[in-house]
């Protein structure tokens, strides 16, 4: 993954986590990065796929269809 792509993804994620936007050249300190939990990542991915950070059990992903080949419907939801 290119540095530019990584920066855009981490800025998008941190915007979701913290609630305000970050400039593309933002350097996140170690404390901020260490505060990321698996629940934060899960909520962000749910938001990207379902449009809701806490989707219902019967929700169907309608966003992020470009990831469909990487996630099969047989994968259990945690």
Overview of this protein structure:
- This protein has one domain (3-67).
- The chain is built from 3 helices and no strands.
- It has helices at 3-18, 30-34, 38-50.
- The longest helix has 16 residues, at 3-18.
**How far apart are the first and last residues' alpha carbons, in Å?**
27 Å
Structural class by helix and strand composition: mainly alpha
Give the percentage of residues in beta strands: under 5%
Sequence of secondary-structure elements: HHH
Q: Radius of gyration, rounded?
A: 14 Å
How many separate domains make up the residues? 1
**For the residues shown, what is the average pLDDT?**
83
Label the overall shape: globular
**Beta-strand segment tally:** 0
Question: Which structural traits does this protein have?
Answer:
single chain, 78 residues, mainly alpha, 3 helices
What is the topological layout?
Elements: H1 3-18, H2 30-34, H3 38-50
């Amino acid at each position: 993954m290119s540095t530019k792509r990584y920066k855009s993804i981490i800025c998008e994620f941190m915007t979701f986590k913290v609630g305000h936007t970050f400039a593309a050249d933002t350097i996140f300190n170690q404390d901020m990065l260490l505060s990321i939990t698996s629940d934060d990542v899960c909520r962000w991915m749910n938001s990207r796929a379902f449009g809701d950070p806490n989707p219902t059990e019967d929700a169907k992903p309608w966003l992020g269809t470009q990831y469909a080949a990487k996630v099969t419907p047989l994968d259990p939801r945690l």
